[in-house]
């Protein structure tokens, strides 16, 4: 009687992804992230003609390999934050220094190793607080022969983040920043216009008072 093999339970999910080619329009301003513009077309129903239309994405650059002006290939399905859901997979045409002089772009296997390590570090911290799901995932990782970090190394990144937050508070900075790519609503725009108009009226009235007192 043949025995059926149990499927290997993945430690992290692998999402479906598609690839796009675009140009890096902003690099070096965010930690391990760049902005990539993807060219496209938009169909105008009235004129019945396609016009150029582009979209800009925040893309993860784990190794800080990209420069502004690079033509790159990106893949979706790699969420690292609320705004970042794409990751760079290769440099199609470099701009500036050659690819050999830059940190290499991580392969999919290297990215998955980093993601699994971060997932297990998080599970170790959660398991220390008694979370059952994390304990089961650590048990499955041991069966697969993966290296399980100890609690001290798992707390390392957390301590670094706490130190950065403390330094930011001491320097007068704020932890809560406005989300990247925030656009003003119509209400905010109208409020801003009213404030500008009111300031202009006050300045004009003050000017008239000064002119009258001078005469």
From TrEMBL:
Belongs to the universal ribosomal protein uS17 family. SUPFAM superfamilies: Nucleic acid-binding proteins (SSF50249). GO terms for molecular function: structural constituent of ribosome. Transmembrane segments: none annotated. Residues 162-215 are annotated as: Disordered. GO terms for biological process: translation. Keywords: Ribonucleoprotein, Ribosomal protein. This is Nucleic acid-binding protein. It comes from Melanomma pulvis-pyrius CBS 109.77. Residues 185-207 have a biased composition (Basic and acidic residues). GO terms for cellular component: ribonucleoprotein complex; ribosome. It holds the Pfam family Ribosomal_S17. InterPro entries: NA-bd_OB-fold, Ribosomal_uS17.
